[in-house]
Write a structure and sequence with these properties.
Largest sheet: 17 strands, antiparallel
Shape: elongated
Number of helices: 5
Strand content: over 45%
Helix content: under 10%
Radius of gyration: 30 Å
Number of strands: 27
Length: 503
Amino acid sequence: TAMTAATKAGLFNPYDPTSSDPETLAALTNYEVYGKTEQQLNDLRAVIDGSLLTVPAGEIKLAFGSEYYHERFKTRKGQTVPGYAESGFSGQTIDGVQVISPIAAVPSASLARDVSSAFGEVVIPVFSDQNAVPGIKELSLTAAGRFDHYSDVGDTFNPRFGITYRPIDWLKFRASQGKSFVAPSLADAEESEVTQVIQVPAAFFAPPADLVQDGTYPAPASGQFVLGIRGNSPGITPQKADTLSLGALITPPFAKDVDLGVTYYKIDFKGVIGLPPVGGPATATLYRDYPFLVNTAPTAEEVQAVIASSDIPISACSPLPDCVYAILDIQKRNLGNFKMDGLDFTADYHPQTSFGSLLFSVNGTYELSREQSAAPGLPYSDQLKANYTRLRVRSSAGAQTGKLLSQIIWNHTAGYDIDPAGVVMPQQTHVGSFDVVNLYFRYDVDGEGMLKDVAVTFNADNVFDEAPPEFRGTVSRASSSGYVADKGSTLGRFFQLGLSKKF
């Protein structure tokens, strides 16, 4: 806005900025995106646990407690002239022209919440080695629950139940089912985030061609713009989930020092908090799966209301509303439901040797399904057939020799297909896998006095300086380094020496 005013007055030359009025140049560059946030958490928690009574299978264990915490969140965000965030800026006139209009103080918010909780868990042994019967070496039941009273989002009670069953010495099954609850953070409140309206040429945020051809959306006209609303949507509600896990642990008698485990998990989220997809290929997903966030026929009153809602003033296109192709509500909100299931697996082998012990381990997770519903009542769509990795594995091999622990660690993340293909040419349809090798050493010093319980560690991360897989996409899908954030990150080859001591 300031640049437009200066250009019209002849104080700024966009074709040769250095020839512009020096005072004007200084004014145009003297601005900042200001942000300051303070968070405080005071937490008081008390727990009592122990044996309740003894039964033939052993002791019934009981734990219960209560918790209280007070949370405060203060934030101030916006654009301003440096030094005027709290007071506001009176404006600046150069040669009789108001180049910079008055700027109000940067919006601020101060929020707080109190949470009071009570929780407990009981473990009941039904069978154990003390009273085992044929086919039941161990059987125990668990029940737990937590009640929370939030001063801002109300009450919630979330139970969890579990069972452990061992039919023979070397095979154990376990299962649990429960509910979870996560309140929106204070940073998710409407007043905690700046509401900003961005204005972008419609060609960069147009709907996919097939949705235009079938009449779902009109084709953008030349010179039209898209208005995008950023910030926190009002009325964000808590996230809830139902969880289920079924697992087995095998310690085969014919393979000494071997432990094998597998767990099936299933999670059903309700009211997931997130940002709608936008930018590059993600914009097609917005138009396709979130049509309720798209308005391609806004009235002049709707456009003016959106522009007025922006905490950061913008110069709107004209004439309104014809110059606006669509209004996209891309604020943080509850984005429908999400469900997933998969397998966690582990294999450990720790044989003893004449010089110490060897350590071999494989741990990983494989997603079986990942589905998302854009809003309650809408159908679920498959998220795993493209754009997400299914498999992550961490393997390690090492040895414990006296006071020295040595390990080599291999982290593997599988690649995946991209759909739709990237917009950067040549088009990319697949992201490769990512493999990183790390080294870890720990030496426990056997000393007295200040040298007691001292350990020296050395890490060599990404020993082969492996670069992340390339992703030719948009910032919303990839980090500025050019790789997809959910595939892991690396600083390149990195060495770290540590010294620790227990007191």
